[in-house]
Amino acid sequence: LIERVKMPEMNAMKRVCYQDREVNLGLDVQSAVREAQRCMDCVNPTCMEGCPVSINIPKFIKNIERGEFLEAAKTLKETSALPAVCGRVCPQEKQCEANCFYTLKLKKTPVAIGYLERFAADYERESGQASIPETAPKNGIKVAAIGSGPASLAFAGDMIKLGYDVTVFEALHEIGGVLKYGIPEFRLPNKIVDVELDNLEKMGVRFERNFIVGRTASFDDLKAEGYQAFFVASGAGLPRFMNIPGENYNGILSSNEYLTRVNLMNAADDSFDTPVLKGKNVAVVGGGNTAMDSVRTAKRLGADRAMIIYRRSREEMPARVEEIHHAEEEGIEFINLTNPIEYFSDENGRVKSMKVQRMELAEADASGRRRPVVIEGSEYEIPVDVVVVAIGVSPNPLVPSELPQLKVSRWGTIDVDSETMQSSMPELFAGGDIVRGGATVILAMGDGRRAAAGMHQYLSEQNAALANAGQANTSQAKN
Amino acid sequence: MNEIINVESFSENVVKLVVKAPRIARSRKPGHFIILRIDEKGERIPLTIAAADEKAGTITLVAQKVGVTSKRLCEMKPGDSILDLVGPLGKATHIEKVGTVLACGGGVGVAPLLPIVEGFKKAGNRVVTILAARSKDLIILEDEIRKWSDEVIVMTDDGSHGRKGLVTAGAEEVIKREKVDECVAIGPAVMMKFTSLLTQKYNIPTQASLNAIMVDGTGMCGACRVSVGGQTKFTCVDGPEFDAEKIDFDELILRLGGYKAEEKEAFERFMQTVTI
Ligand SMILES: Cc1cc2nc3c(=O)[nH]c(=O)nc-3n(C[C@H](O)[C@H](O)[C@H](O)COP(=O)(O)OP(=O)(O)OC[C@H]3O[C@@H](n4cnc5c(N)ncnc54)[C@H](O)[C@@H]3O)c2cc1C
Ligand SMILES: Cc1cc2nc3c(=O)[nH]c(=O)nc-3n(C[C@H](O)[C@H](O)[C@H](O)COP(=O)(O)OP(=O)(O)OC[C@H]3O[C@@H](n4cnc5c(N)ncnc54)[C@H](O)[C@@H]3O)c2cc1C
Ligand code: SF4
Ligand code: SF4
Ligand code: FES
Q1: In a shared domain, residues B20 and B133
Q2: Where does this protein hold [2Fe-2S] cluster (chain B) (predicted)?
């Protein structure tokens, strides 16, 4: 039996010196083909059930095995708008690879579906032979996407192919949403996202940066300009804090602020004006992808101690397994089963230490998760000069607050029909994190595609009805 | 994009810029601000929309030189353009007819105060405005403020223009003289803190407009958080104006110094590139 391929990586001691060098180097042709041979082309490919967009996994992998790499990329693109991104950032171990025959039946390491997906997409991009998909003749109908994260990009790609006139509005000065301002270069290089953006632009998608829908112009303004329907994918951008004493001291910031300064504003590069705090003892609170990205960024900015403070244990960490593993290799300290309760500052209001409390895991509750409970009397202090709070985000309230008639849940997510992604306002569709709360890139993309299909059907019916009414009118006029 | 139409300098350190931004000119209200980034390598900084001309499609910004970005803004010329400009941001000022409004502006805080003074006047209030600064050449927009105020009192620390003394001296005089129904204070954090302490003594509801450090301005980063009534608020989306009585000014003052060392370094780097 062939062993699962190992991803070549940049050496840990070397890579922590670079904020902008990708850790995973990608498979070469030989190892990709060999890994592809492991796939047994199952009659009932359970892996596909694990993929939220049901990529035809055996088909693309067998293309790789035959050396038809461009065909493999084409197969991926039938269902995924951003395979080079998903191959890198999907939590494969919980999705496709968790449902591979090897995992389920053979109790062996699964086929490296994610690595192969990345391989095929990178191969196509680097070959310079990426095909620009054909688009239907223009139908002249204007639609808008709000936000430029993965949900909107997937939506825009599908709508432009159907012949619509698509504009993507983005509040920030860069297109890409979390792919640009959140996920660091060492995990997802911007140039990979930029290629996809270029393709969309070539297909005719328009991008309006520095434009906040609801503020720069209202929905009514845009309707007056001819937009017939909207796809809201404004993300879950609102950072949560713990509301514990001292949390507003200098040096304590949200992961969004920390990562935005470094990724969007290039603060780590001295030739850019935006500053970032470079701590010696940096604590990152949380255990998700955002926490891992922050703590590894801190290490790269020169921290002596870069620590994760997480209230559960490693097993419960929501971050991708690979990121936790990379963080360990890079010398990140994991202080698990520990929770901050208070911060202390120096005379200038700069944080100097955090008081934490040890936790233990109680029996699993109804949700099946083991609940962390406080160990009384276990408090102690950790010296810190930068703290990054990465305990989660809430839905961005900008759009719902502009539309009082829009139905939202009590968590502030937009309510939609799960098939068509249509909201309580018929001309308004929504998807991605604004509908799901914090989720994943692939789920956001899937939503974008479903919304495109839903909106296309809605607009076709609307415009057909209009045309009929128009015909009825003209025939009446004749009589 | 975002072309600079007109530049006027009020003093060596304060400049007024008229910038083309038709959409923002149409949708802005008093109290709103924008965030701009001069070029690829620039920082995003917030500036209040001091005025707007919907027909010409322009907005007016007033910037005071304090660091790299504001210094570069002060050196811009008509025909130059600003790479990124987004807005209008923040909540608009709540303006209604209350009777007599006391408006206090310190230094460059007079810029954001101007549209608010105009708004209150147009809503039918009596408006008394106090303009305060260290010295004569730091008093800005005096004519524009006079246009919308029933009375203007100028206070300077050194007595070089108007009367000698702090903003609070002028304010207390008005409060003792006539019934004031509402107060608005905009300026350096210390100035707003003491104005607020004064008006609290007389039970006058007071709004202060906070100049927290910001990055995105859309509620995404939390850099701009302040404590108001014991709760954490984001200045960019929940403010910038808050009930002054409830603001933790001491925390704000500390937070404004949060990046001092880094900003100083950036400024020195910038000055080096300029002299070469
Ligand atoms: C640091 C970090 C690491 C992550 N790592 C992973 C990972 O490894 N794997 C994974 O699958 N997922 C990961 N995620 C989650 C994933 O990135 C998100 O689920 C996904 O990006 C959501 O996409 P979206 O299209 O809904 O919106 P977003 O990507 O959040 O984009 C929304 C955009 O809308 C803009 N916007 C908001 N309001 C307006 C408005 N009114 N007008 C105009 N524009 C507006 C915002 O500025 C933003 O750019 C990570 C998230 C973070 C923060
Ligand atoms: C809602 C809002 C509206 C504003 N309106 C105006 C305006 O109309 N005109 C104007 O001149 N300024 C205004 N400001 C302040 C302005 O944004 C800052 O002066 C600017 O960000 C400084 O950037 P810089 O790069 O020039 O200086 P930096 O190099 O970033 O900072 C230089 C020094 O200024 C201090 N500083 C940094 N940020 C701020 C800040 N936000 N407020 C006060 N001090 C700061 C720091 O202590 C630092 O030492 C406003 C701020 C806010 C939040
Ligand atoms: S998109 Fe994600 S879940 Fe689907 S096959 Fe690719 S890596 Fe697996
Ligand atoms: S389940 Fe595994 S082995 Fe079977 S087709 Fe899918 S990837 Fe290949
Ligand atoms: S400036 Fe980022 S949340 Fe206010």
Answers
A1: no
A2: 221, 224, 236
